């Protein structure tokens, strides 16, 4: 296994019998889902600002493998030459079928310019999802985000679809759009499906100075309010200071050898 495949396997982007059970819909690990959602929601408002550009570059390097599409390409013809066919050294049937045998599907990465636009859409939508309380509205946002992702992929794959109304072919055109076959599961779709089920884990860090306040709480930490111990430290120290100011007179004192009193715990 090459180094690239090894890295992708560790991150859950390559399926195997051992990791399939831990993956969401079999295509992306839960750990990657959580990291992707937090990274995307915490992107700056504008990826074009010079000071914010490094944040997007890090996001792109990390998550670009999640965004791919397929196109049909034709390999260069490598059959017999016309001269050999005319001289009888090769059969003409081989050449006549070459266009079919050399057509193939190629997987490509979504271009950077498309990802820049999509990252801004995903970031803003995820932030709305993070605070939305209406379950119907949350489902609608999730559907819309998945649909925008699918439209981007279909555009790159060469499907020219129009959503204009009023012409005589409007019913058939929109029925074709609505009744499209379900596409193959992509890591992004799996991520949003997971989010719809686990939306109660979406929290905003209680530390007002947190630089990445959108996070997913740990599965069993129902009382978690901060994204990390570092962000929780100021609140923890403030709580201890408040307790001390309210209870210091109740703490018994013990006389030490030097004749001074020290506070004790009992």
- Order of secondary-structure elements: HEEHHEHHHEHHHHEEHEE
Number of strands: 8
**Rg over CA atoms:** 29 Å
Low-confidence stretches: 1-20, 94-100
Q: Specify the number of helices.
A: 11
What do the pLDDT scores average to? 77
Shape: elongated
The count of domains is 2
- Helical content band: 40-55%
Strand order of the largest sheet: 1-2
Beta-strand content? 5-15%
* Head-to-tail CA distance between termini: 62 Å
Q: In terms of structural class, how would the helical and strand content be classed?
A: mainly alpha
User: Biggest sheet: strands, sense, closure?
Assistant: 2 strands, antiparallel
Q: Could you characterize what this model shows?
A:
The protein has 266 residues and is mainly alpha-helical. The chain folds into two domains: 27-73 and 84-227, no CATH class; 232-266, no CATH class. Helices cover 47% and strands 11% of the residues. The chain contains eleven helices and eight strands. The protein has helices at 3-10, 30-41, 53-63, 82-86, 92-96, 98-101, 112-131, 135-156, 170-178, 187-197, 229-247; strands at residues 23-24, 28-29, 68-74, 103-109, 202-204, 214-216, 253-255, 261-263. The strands form four sheets. It has a two-stranded antiparallel sheet. Strand 7 (253-255) and strand 8 (261-263) form a beta hairpin. Helix 2 (30-41) crosses helix 10 (187-197), helix 7 runs antiparallel to helix 8 and helix 8 (135-156) runs antiparallel to helix 10 (187-197). The longest helix is centred in the middle third of the chain and has 22 residues, at 135-156. The chain is elongated, with a radius of gyration of 29 Å. It starts with a helix and ends with a strand. Mean pLDDT is 77; it is low at 1-20 and 94-100.
